[in-house]
Amino acid sequence: MGNRVSLLFLLLGVASVEAASLYTVESLGSLGAGASLATGINNSGTAVGWVTDSQGNVNPVQFLNGQATAFGSGGQANAINSGGVAIGTLFTGGGPSVVEWSGGHMTSLGVAGYGTAINNGGQVAGGYVGPDGQLHAFTWSNGVLVDLGTLGGSSSAAYGINASGQTAGASMTAGGTFHAFFSNGALEDLGTLGGTNSYGMALNDAGQVTGNAQTAAGYSTAFLWDGQHMKSLGTLGGTQSYGYGIDSNGDVVGYSWTGDGVTHGFLYSGGVMLDLNSLLPIGSGWTIDGAYGINDAGQILALATHDGQRYAVDLNPILTTPEPAALALVLLGLVAITGIRRRR
Predict the structure, then answer these.
(1) What is the C-alpha to C-alpha distance for residues 115 and 97, in angstroms, rounded to an integer?
(2) ∠ CA 143-146-152 to the nearest 5 degrees?
(3) pTM, to two decimals
(4) What digits encode the pLDDT tens for the residues 246-301?
(5) How far is CA 292 from CA 67, 256, 283, in A?
(6) Are 124 and 98 in contact (CB under 8 A)?
């Protein structure tokens, strides 16, 4: 998706890109009035999350055929892999436990804690309750749990895992602050953007990490870590932004405050943060409030509002790399526009 958006920038300029329709909106289901969230999408476009029902119960769901279908009750689904295996957390009287859902069946992994991520090989990541009673980042595979440790503090949690089993997350430091980490067997402190705290929320197979980090002014800003440096992705005109998903091209999605003091979902691609609302068909009636995942097909999992109702939605890309004939037409149009401007 990054190369295609960058190409459009070169041909039409940023102002034209923001007016172009690059995505269609597919409703995945209503989220109701309670606290709810769409949290993960796989490469087939299947999404999961959690919904609070009218009784106040939090239920894990799969978004399918335009509606939220519950896996069960009393839990959260946080991620799903390409095999359709979802990972999440079940809340019971004994505390949180990590569970999988597959083929209509729930399986406990025997881990007290929170399941946040799963890769296509079935490796799981999250935070488990350690012997000291603190939450520790972990990976789990074939019944074996590995404690990833901390950055010197008492607690940590992993929020993303890639095909190689590398993880990203956040850990308390010896100084009592929280810093984003990358782990390939040992936790690497990613630092901040000049402020106090940072959190790693997702990573791709290349090991690039996104999340949010505080600036010296104390504002949280979405970042992209490329293996060496943490880069600020900026905002949509407001004070803060948060990165939540990243694809194989390094494109990032999340949400940002705008200059009007509301949150909009964004796509960061080709070095530019774009308001997802500017990439929808004109008059669609949808407002994209935040984006929480992106798959390698360029589909974006988002929260949106339509007629005052909240929905989980899938933004499907409709822009493809122009064929030579189409590219020629675009260039011809630019020549014509240039000619008109010269005559003026």
Answers:
(1) 8
(2) 160
(3) 0.87
(4) 999 999 999 999 999 999 999 999 999 999 999 999 899 999 999 999 999 999 99
(5) 18, 12, 24
(6) yes
